[in-house]
Amino acid sequence: MLLTIDVGNTNIVLGLYEGRGDSAKLRHDWRMRTDAQITADELALTMRGLLGEYAGKVTGISALSTVPAVLRELRVLLGRYYADVPKVVVEPGVRTGVPLLVDNPKEVGADRLANTLAAHHLHPTACVVVDFGTSTNIDAISAKGEFLGGAFAPGIEISVDALADKAAALRKVELVPPRSVIGKSTVECLQSGIVYGFAGQVDGLVKRIVAELTGGADVPVAVLATGGLAPLVLSESDTITEHVPDLTLLGLRLVYERHIRG
Fold this sequence. Notes:
Blueprint: E1 2-7, E2 11-18, E3 25-33, H1 40-51, E4 60-65, H2 68-81, E5 87-89, H3 110-122, E6 126-132, E7 135-141, E8 147-154, H4 156-166, H5 186-214, E9 221-226, H6 230-234, E10 242-243, H7 247-259
Parallel strand pairs: 1-4, 4-5, 6-9, 9-10
Antiparallel strand pairs: 1-2, 2-3, 6-7, 7-8
Helix pairs in contact: 1-2, 3-7
């Protein structure tokens, strides 16, 4: 079974795939909090606890980390606990098959590469990927699978934290849609601004990106949402066409198959 490891700034997501190619299935997935100070041994212990009975059935590993400190410990973990297991860590220099049409390809995060590969695998058209994580990343992908660049915006949770920290009369609230856009209480006003505000931000950016992608032509563009906070905005967005929660894990599987078996 292939273990995929996606280390983000907020969470670490593990996925376990069975089979290969078109017959591969994501059998299980787990989510844990990212700790930039975690050691390789602590990470291994937590992972094995989550994997449980599947810990000894891992036959391959594909991983990425957008947190440099955890990436270092991840490499130690893979060498110490999975020395005999075929593995790939997605980083600059690793063959992914994704052309990077940007000014500095080394700046492109491994998660954005994995998402690009997965999106093009799912759709032969041009694509836009909206990744709701610590930051909200909106990336453009050509119909040929080329990574064209994108836009970053502050993520939902860090925006809420910043607002609660800087405004004395405001506080953190449950991230759910309020009864109406016009909030009737401080809590509902905050929820309205968060939910509908971020939906409007995403829709505005996506529409501009799609216009540049298509040059105004009437061609199909798939808009995929992923990331832990995507469900909060999905029902309020006018532009998102599909929710793919395991998009990054799928990309990691595809990189592994190209790099190890290709």
